[in-house]
Specification:
- The longest helix has 17 residues.
- A hairpin with a 2-residue loop joins strand 24 and strand 25.
- 5% of the residues lie in helices and 50% in strands.
- The protein is mainly beta and 621 residues long.
- The chain is built from 4 helices and 43 strands.
Length: 621
């Protein structure tokens, strides 16, 4: 097969590093801008796509058979059974998260859905999935733009009708630059490209700069699969696996790679100078499925950590903590790998059971699917078998003293009557000096249609599960017994307000297909409210005290978009009133608090950057 000309390589510098236990190579490259597109102008009238209902993804035939054999063995070894406790028992159960906003994010997903999300400070939600991108108003759930990923990324010029398609999308919001980065893949084998878009502004319907990276950049007949992403203050990182052309995961897996890119060059539409870290080995064995650890309460200046495990193991207690030590241009940058032994083993889970059908939902393997770092602590989640009841469950790990003497403790979150998979996790604030996290995942069971729910974790204790979206039916899309389910869910903290997070997942819709659902979750704990030492905008509230309706008059020197949110006297978040463009001069906010209990509340208005501008105390009688 003739290989494409590698026009994106402006320079090539390869380095091989060998330490006693860690080996890796680095390759420095440059990628030119492929083109610019304005998303609002992308017209995709029919939003048409053809989905194959028989086969799995192009690389999966042998992988699927091998993984199925592991799952059958796991189900025989760990049969389904009822244990004494339906849910993980805790010594001090926590209050559960509440759903403060929710809506259907899109309604025409591919197979698998591969749905993901991000939300900006002005409450603009962006949903991506196979194979569409949608922009929604986070205050109302109203969709303001929807188009195909292929239509959006046409400037990259991949027009081979046999291999011109987009899949595995991920998107991230950059709260420092107030912009977006979107990644997707095109084709497999020799037609494989990584396609990346950087928004020029904070409007995702505005202009995007697009770049393409050839998967087989070394000419070694490998292609790139399964991206995962994160950012630092100055750089964008994504990881993936390199697979051999036309081969299975057993014979075809070559290595996992890390791409390191300067964000500013992408936002400006300049050529991207970047580095690839590949052939990453520990004690002679490749590290697979490197999962980047996302940020906690703020975007870190330091380079990120990554996590990996033995994702095809039936039972294993090792998790690899990987650190990329410095920025792109540093001559001292290297990779450090620290294997950690957990107190609890994880392993491949059997597929998910469904109500009123013998069709099952694929839980994939035990790879790490979500992680965040806050201070010197990392928390992560993956799907795992629960040997005590045979159910697909959520493995929640916590790594403490990350930078000095890391240690790992884990717990299994499990319900006998449900199978749970494709978890994600986000920072959910700090309460009394302790990190609070929120975990979301998809669920299904022999008496329960596929839906999604979430749970709060704090210091090894857990809340009850909060149901986000119940299923309307089972999922039957493919002709095979095993139906696709994931391959991941999305989760992001609300950058305006700690103690809130946005999530996206799957439910079974009434047509036995995939429902794509987005929700904003709120913590019941006081995790702090925006600090306002003095009023930046003159305001007055009346009547105060009040029984039902109250009003706040305020004066703006210049027009601005403001977010209005309500808290109780202890700082607990009550709810989001609205996001509004407010004119210069005198304005009046009026709202109803008649449904609230008697007490003192605080109304805080922030700008699009999260800076608090108005604060009024309101007494409800």
């Amino acid at each position: 097969m003739r290989k494409p000309i590698l026009s994106f390589i402006a320079c090539l510098l390869c380095t091989y590093v060998l330490h006693a236990q860690v080996q890796y190579t680095t390759t420095s490259l440059q990628c030119p801008l492929s083109g610019t597109v304005r998303l609002q102008n992308c017209n995709d009238t029919f939003l048409a796509q053809v989905r194959n209902l028989e086969i799995h993804e192009p690389d999966e035939s042998a992988e699927y058979e091998a993984l199925m054999r592991i799952k059958v063995a796991q189900q025989k070894k760990y049969p389904y059974k009822t244990t004494a406790h339906k849910v993980l028992k805790t010594t001090a159960p926590l209050a559960a998260p509440t759903v403060s906003m929710s809506f259907v994010a899109d309604s025409n997903s591919g197979t698998p859905p591969d749905n993901y999300l991000c939300v900006s400070k002005n409450n603009t939600c962006v949903s991506v999935m196979n194979s569409f991108i949608s922009v929604l108003d986070g205050n109302t759930g109203i969709m303001t733009k929807r188009t195909g990923l292929k239509t959006m990324s046409l400037p990259v010029g991949l027009n081979n009708i046999m291999n011109d398609y987009r899949y595995d999308p991920k998107i991230i919001y950059d709260p420092i630059e107030d912009k977006f980065i979107c990644i997707m893949l095109n084709g497999v084998n020799a037609a494989n490209y990584i396609v990346i878009g950087f928004s020029q502004t904070n409007d995702p319907k505005g202009n995007w700069n697009f770049y393409k990276f050839y998967g087989d950049y070394k000419g070694d007949t490998t292609w790139f699969d399964y991206p995962a992403i994160t950012i630092s203050k100055s750089e964008f990182y994504f990881t993936g696996n390199k697979l051999g052309f036309n081969t299975s995961w057993q014979a075809g897996f070559k290595n996992s790679v890390i791409y390191q890119i300067k964000k500013a060059e992408g936002y400006a539409g300049q050529p991207l100078n970047y580095k690839i870290w590949d052939s990453i080995y520990y004690q002679g064995k490749p590290i697979r499925n490197l999962h980047p650890v996302k940020n906690g309460s703020a975007i870190a200046a330091e380079t990120p950590y990554f996590l990996s495990n033995r994702n095809f193991a039936t039972q294993n207690d090792t998790v690899f903590l990987i650190r990329l030590t410095d920025t792109l241009n540093s001559a001292n940058a290297n990779i450090q790998i620290n294997p950690l032994k957990s107190n609890l083993a994880y392993g491949v889970a059997a597929d998910g059971r469904q109500k009123d059908t013998a069709y099952t939902l694929a839980t994939n393997d035990a790879r790490i699917l979500g992680a965040f770092k806050e201070g010197d602590e990392i928390q992560f989640v993956n799907t795992s078998i629960n040997p005590s009841n045979g159910a697909a469950s959520i493995y929640h790990g916590t790594i403490q003293q990350v930078s000095s003497n890391p240690s790992l403790q884990a717990q299994l979150l499990s319900i006998d009557s449900l199978d749970m998979a494709y978890p994600n996790i986000s920072y959910f604030g700090v309460n009394n000096g302790t990190i609070v996290s929120v975990i979301n995942c998809n669920y299904s069971g022999p008496r329960t249609f596929a839906g999604m729910h979430a749970i709060i974790s704090k210091a090894g204790q857990y809340s009850d599960w909060t149901n986000i979206k119940k299923g309307d039916s089972n999922i039957v899309v493919l002709s095979a017994k095993q139906q696709r389910w994931g391959d991941y869910t999305g989760s992001q903290m609300d950058w305006n307000f700690p103690g809130n997070a946005w999530v996206i997942g799957i439910f079974g819709n009434a047509k036995r297909g995939y429902g794509n659902y987005m929700a904003r979750l709120s913590s019941p704990y006081n995790v702090g409210i925006p600090s306002l030492t003095e009023k930046k905008i003159k305001s007055i509230s009346y009547p105060n005290p009040c029984y039902q309706f109250t009003a706040i008059d305020f004066t703006l020197k210049t027009a601005a978009v403001l977010n209005f949110d309500l808290y109780n006297a202890t700082g607990q978040y009550i709810g989001h009133l609205l996001t509004q463009f407010c004119e210069e001069g005198e304005n009046r906010l009026q709202f109803n608090i008649g449904y609230l209990s008697t007490g003192v509340y605080r109304l805080i208005a922030t700008d699009v950057h999260g800076a608090p501008l108005i604060q009024e105390s309101i007494i409800k009688q």
